[in-house]
Amino acid sequence: MDKIEAVIGFIRRPIVIHSFRLLKNKNQLFIVSLASTPLEISKGSFKADSEVLTSIHSRTFLYALKQRNSCIFSELPQSLLNKTTILIFKDYTKLSNMKFQLTINSADTIDEVKNYWSEEDYIHLLEKFNYPDADKAEKNSLRELLLMAITDFEPNEAAAILLDYKLADQLNEGQIEQISNDMLLDKIAEEYPEISLHVTLFHINQLLFKAFNGKFPNTKATFMELSITPVGNEENIKLDKESVLKLLGAGLSDGNLIKRLFTSQMGEGVSFPEANDILWELTSIGDDKFTLLTSQYWLNVDDITANEFESVYEKVEQSEEA
User: Fold this and answer.
1) Alpha-carbon distance 218 to 209, whole Å?
2) 319, 320, 315, 321: which is closest to 100 by C-alpha?
3) Nearest Cα to 244, choosing from 197, 221, 276, 198?
4) Helix, strand, coil % over all residues of the chain, rounded to 5
5) Cβ distance 104 to 218 under 8 Å?
6) pLDDT in tens, 201-223
7) Which of 169, 170, 247, 307 is a Cys-bridge partner for 311, taking CB atoms 3.0 to 4.6 Å apart?
8) In a 3-state reduction of DSSP, which class is residue 24?
9) Average pLDDT over residues 66-76
């Protein structure tokens, strides 16, 4: 049996439960209920390759469904009360509700991110595209020289050179060859299964799109500037990609792709590691203001339903008494 992954949340209403049971099914549903005082583990038929822990607080419970590497929170069903098997976890977390006021100051669709490619990149790439003495060229002409040098190659050959330059440590030779051909037909920067590669594939695609004057599909990005202000929060909250993306959900339409594909992850109290790859960049620019960059595939400007709105983020925190 897999190791149990436990996350504990505060219930929405007062409740004291004296026992619980383990439900066995293909998704491995684990249920924890707590009495008014710390409980010891009882004897029972439950066995697992995991550490059995003790000590817990009242009025808290765990109801975690291991499904797609996520935990789904719910109130404990009445049908599970008055059972005999008791399992208690020592280390637990709590959910801290934090309300924020969000203001989307601007949201634009762009097809290029300036300064992504550095002067050093241009020089190295010019060398790979057989341009002589690239290091002696005028710095402000490097980009145009590269665009011209790229067109001396077949489109798929040029794509392979750029893919090898940027992603040789993540893609093998066969994958590079396949992607270099697929890029001429499909928006690989949106469709490639590894979300973590989307941002690099976007920049490569757009350089090729410019060089070959539209032979490659035109992929686009969304650049947004927004303000995120705590409402009634005394503590200094450090926002990251996951928390910002979840907060944005309240201002996005139900048709937004992120909300449709990651419904549970966008919900309260569920870990959302994919947010680090969906949001390409998140930058604090001071005074509770941020800029973010992502693919239009994930967040279209038309998905925004409100420029000002309140949103609640449930942060999972380690209990001091765990």
Assistant:
1) 6
2) 315
3) 276
4) 30, 20, 50
5) no
6) 999 999 999 999 999 999 999 99
7) 247
8) coil
9) 32
